């Protein structure tokens, strides 16, 4: 195997592939990157058995062949080549030889026969479908709800992000049973039935891949596997063959009190209140429609207490209610709006947070009752 290429291009591809590689001490080959030259392209592969990636980059003076090397070692080497524009890679017995104008390096290879096969699916496979979406839109949908997912493997259906279509929207949902986030992304022309459940532990890798992409991606899926691909990238991950809970029945539709205020103002007071909150991160809200005041209080018998007030637009009935401040801050951190709307039903019923002007994001959070 031999090739010449631009250093920055191979470095970017190897860094991305290394993020997908495994950290399994019993299967050290999962920490490897497989490099294969085919004609005028270098194919870079890595996998952790849950996810797998293939990236193609153009090369010059290629000689077909393949080799597996430790991903971390290759990333560290390429990242520390500061002044080199081009690099040559070639096999040298059981080593990968890397040469630039000023350096010559050997990296020990790993057994090729141990490297796992990355599964492939296409539209010819039974019960397989696809759609196209902008990478930034898919990424936004995932990032908007990811934080609300459960992380336990005991209930895999809710330790996940659920993606389905409704009308012309692609809907992303995550919950841990104490809170629920829903994000809608408009996808004009979407006519297919989409039901995808992506495990929580696979979302981070998918987001890392989408962070590196521009333009439109193809999404191919069946009941066991999902693929995100472009002309030069193929990323596959395992999905859950199951049924997501019917979450819509728990979303309130009638409200007694409504609050509209600046997002940053509320975030600042919540952060201040958490300094004095207890081990449950409990903060207490007192909504006063007659004076348009929101009072926040927190108390920790070992530290002290905090009381803050905020002018806001409040309509409806007075209300006192308590929440886990972290759950509120998590939502506000991903909501890309200057103002927010908070809708309340009762002191023991869920709160809905959304944008005053858009219906693309909503967040449900249960109060603390103790």
UniProtKB/TrEMBL annotation:
Belongs to the beta sliding clamp family. Residues 1-119 form the DNA polymerase III beta sliding clamp N-terminal domain. Pfam families: DNA_pol3_beta, DNA_pol3_beta_2, DNA_pol3_beta_3. One of its GO terms (biological process) is DNA strand elongation involved in DNA replication. One of its GO terms (cellular component) is DNA polymerase III complex. Residues 248-368 form the DNA polymerase III beta sliding clamp C-terminal domain. The gene is dnaN. It is found in: Cytoplasm. Forms a ring-shaped head-to-tail homodimer around DNA. Confers DNA tethering and processivity to DNA polymerases and other proteins. Acts as a clamp, forming a ring around DNA (a reaction catalyzed by the clamp-loading complex) which diffuses in an ATP-independent manner freely and bidirectionally along dsDNA. Initially characterized for its ability to contact the catalytic subunit of DNA polymerase III (Pol III), a complex, multichain enzyme responsible for most of the replicative synthesis in bacteria; Pol III exhibits 3'-5' exonuclease proofreading activity. This is Beta sliding clamp. SMART domains: POL3Bc. Residues 135-246 form the DNA polymerase III beta sliding clamp central domain. One of its GO terms (molecular function) is DNA binding. It comes from Candidatus Vogelbacteria bacterium CG10_big_fil_rev_8_21_14_0_10_49_38. Its main location: cytoplasm. It comes from the Bacteria. Keywords: Cytoplasm, DNA replication, DNA-binding, DNA-directed DNA polymerase, Nucleotidyltransferase, Transferase.
């Amino acid at each position: 195997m031999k090739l010449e290429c631009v250093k920055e291009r191979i470095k970017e591809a190897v860094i991305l592939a290394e993020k997908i590689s495994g950290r399994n001490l019993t299967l050290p080959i999962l920490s490897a990157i497989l490099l294969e030259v085919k004609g005028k392209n270098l194919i870079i592969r890595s996998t952790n058995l849950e996810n797998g990636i293939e990236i193609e980059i153009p090369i010059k003076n290629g000689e077909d062949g393949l080799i597996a090397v430790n991903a971390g070692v290759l990333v560290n080497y390429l990242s520390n080549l500061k002044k080199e524009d081009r690099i040559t890679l070639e096999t040298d017995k059981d080593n990968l030889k890397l040469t630039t104008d000023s350096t010559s390096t050997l990296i020990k290879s790993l057994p090729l026969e141990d490297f796992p096969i990355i599964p492939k699916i296409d539209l010819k496979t039974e019960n397989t479908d696809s759609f196209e979406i902008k990478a930034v839109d898919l990424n936004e949908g995932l990032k908007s709800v990811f934080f609300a997912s459960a992380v336990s493997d005991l209930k895999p259906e809710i330790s996940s992000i659920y993606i389905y279509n409704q009308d012309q929207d692609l809907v992303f949902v995550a919950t841990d049973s104490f809170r629920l986030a829903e994000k809608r992304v408009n996808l004009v022309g979407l006519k297919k039935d989409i039901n995808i459940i992506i495990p929580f532990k696979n979302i981070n890798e998918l987001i890392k891949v989408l962070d590196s992409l521009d333009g439109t991606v193809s999404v191919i899926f069946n009941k066991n596997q999902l693929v995100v691909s472009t002309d030069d990238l193929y990323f596959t991950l395992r999905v859950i063959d199951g049924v997501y809970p019917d979450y819509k029945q728990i979303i309130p539709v009638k409200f007694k009190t409504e609050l509209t205020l600046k997002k940053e103002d509320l975030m600042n007071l919540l952060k201040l209140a958490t300094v004095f909150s207890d081990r449950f991160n409990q903060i207490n809200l007192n909504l006063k429609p007659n004076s348009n005041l929101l009072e926040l209080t927190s108390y920790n018998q070992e530290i002290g207490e905090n009381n803050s007030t905020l002018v806001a637009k409040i309509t409806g009935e007075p209300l006192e209610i308590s929440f886990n401040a972290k759950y509120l801050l998590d939502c506000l951190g991903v909501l890309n709006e200057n103002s927010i709307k908070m809708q309340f039903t009762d002191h023991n019923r869920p709160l809905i947070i959304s944008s005053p002007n858009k219906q693309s994001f909503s967040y449900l959070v249960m109060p603390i009752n103790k």
